[in-house]
């Protein structure tokens, strides 16, 4: 099914005889493989409002991300949460859509800064619940506490509470300049300390990642003179960790952070797990659970991407989820062969009291259990 | 303001309920004497008052759980209360309710600079969270103007903002985790020191739910390194339109100030008479503050100056020192106090798309003439959050009602132009019955479903947020 309007979408959901597989561009095959008829949002597309002076953009859920990014670039603006393009890691095809980005709460390296995650930029949504009812929440303004914030609830729900039809987002000016600082030759423990020192400084670091082969990368962005000043100060602050190399070319910096954002390094691997945790737990988890076949850390150490073979994948996922159950955080199977995605629990199991709340919300927003059923289990 | 009829069964069982509460709490933590419960009869919205059945002041999460378990079993409504500074009546009791105050939950539980968070009990005041980390160069970003008094619990309930949220976001963007007690006494932990939710974003819907989903007893909050410095400029214009266009141009130029504050002529005159900050007598005034090291500030202010001069300002005053900065902020910070000196006033809190600013100000001016009540406008221009202050005379019969009707019309106007009823104060009882103006029945139903899950018996703060007609069957069930 490929409805062309929100009304047709509502009709399609209302009239559905069985489960629906909701699909934006189909580039993010994450979670349990769900049965059901394909419901594509590709037909509900287009930017309906863009006010650069108000930093706001409203678009239909099926709008290609590329179209949005082009419109923003034309005004010198951007989606500051820099969503990952999952095609690189997953080897998937298709056209990423803004609805898919929001449904999966896809947030890139700037998550670690005051910019926050995709959900932090989300101002409002329109969606169709499991009964085919059209519901709106939030709006298009930056400060809004009118009623419950269902928009956040929809971000990262992978369509299981409702099918997004429209999203309103806060956008930000594209920085005039950016510089990367790199310190090579650090182990994970030193890397986390170096990133903590940078992120705890007043120099507004907007990216802090660790690649065990290349070292620690940190990014500063903004007005040119300010970037130069902050990069210099940071380099001095971090001198104790090793030689600090500066890359001031904007294109080179952008390319590097795109590789980090898209977890390009792990693309050759069959199984990749994403772990969100307390940054200082990075060396601990690598010690406890092992470093897999390869890994990459972002968000100052708070986001770990870890790879394994098909054979070792299930045990790695299990160990990571157990670590998170003990120490906080969560581990999600992001890349795996389809058979594995059918048999394993992709998302971190929740304690009973939270699982009951989650189940209660699903039962009320999707009483027939037809929206991507079981995807997040 | 219509409130539900108190449950006569609960009122009749007061002695039993208080005795049960005394069994699980220390003697001084249960207040049932009618003269003492008076202290809890209202919050910052003082026009509405109602003493509760009793008030309890637990000291631990376990005590909160014990209280809620009793109230749940006895069918007693519970109204959670932070510091009682809500301007929307979020903590207004009903006669059959127990006030659950978190004022004695005040400890800092954990401070972690490497991971940039602080874990606190939620009765702690907003400003004292920053106070706990500022010596080490950190701060907690949300800064509601009541920050000296307001509690983190209330900040989470109302998703409080402040003047600096253009850059740093509001409470929901700075909240990493909570320990929360559900109405049946179940203790849940959501989130933690990690940066995103696993599973559904329950934290996102709890924040801003006005104490209707659970009582948050502990919070993990993101702290940020303090900027090296900050400095404001003051820019005066002879029209609101031009001031609005200047705000838009500053934002489009790629500068992200931490605050852009706007005051109109009535507000400038009133504050000038009161605080003598030396503001120019003009139609509209902007205060724009930027952060960074001295040289960074200079660069940003030079850009702002260039943009402002294109709009032909009547005044452009750049702060060169801490004293000058304080003087620029003085009038803005005393705006509410100044208004209070000359009149009773009602402070509104709608948000509008920034582009609609000139139209909305013109319409408010017209409505002001129709109602015969003066309005002064002060607001956060960067994010469109307006605080029109309607002046009225509380001693004049009918004036409060007239003022409320005028306020409702302004908020409906905010919704009409694509904005919302409340930007940072919350719905409470104040805007409860206006919710139909912004939401369809289906929209409200969807929100109430969330409450059905967390609090199936609708005992937590039940008469708030949703129009009474919309929630009637649920509250009666």
From TrEMBL, chain A:
Keyword annotations of the record: FAD, Flavoprotein
This protein's record includes keyword Metal-binding: no
SUPFAM superfamilies: FAD-binding/transporter-associated domain-like, FAD-linked oxidases, C-terminal domain
Gene Ontology MF terms in the entry: catalytic activity; FAD binding
Stored Gene3D superfamilies: 3.30.465.10
Keyword Flavoprotein found: yes
InterPro entries: FAD-bd_PCMH (IPR016166), FAD-bd_PCMH-like_sf (IPR036318), FAD-bd_PCMH_sub2 (IPR016169), FAD-linked_Oxase-like_C (IPR016164), Oxid_FAD_bind_N (IPR006094)
Pfam families documented for this protein: FAD_binding_4
Domain (FAD-binding PCMH-type) ranges: 1-174
Name of the protein in question: 2-hydroxy-acid oxidase
From TrEMBL, chain B:
GO molecular function: FAD binding; oxidoreductase activity
Coiled coil: none
Known cofactor(s): FAD
Cross-referenced InterPro entries: FAD-bd_oxidored_4_C, FAD-bd_PCMH, FAD-bd_PCMH-like_sf, FAD-bd_PCMH_sub2, FAD-linked_Oxase-like_C, FAD-linked_OxidoTrans_Type4, Oxid_FAD_bind_N, Vanillyl_alc_oxidase_C-sub2
One matching Pfam family: FAD-oxidase_C
FAD-binding PCMH-type domain span: 48-226
Keywords, alphabetical: FAD, Flavoprotein, Oxidoreductase
The organism's place on the tree of life at top rank: Bacteria
Alphabetized PANTHER family for the sequence: GLYCOLATE OXIDASE SUBUNIT GLCD
Protein name: FAD-binding oxidoreductase
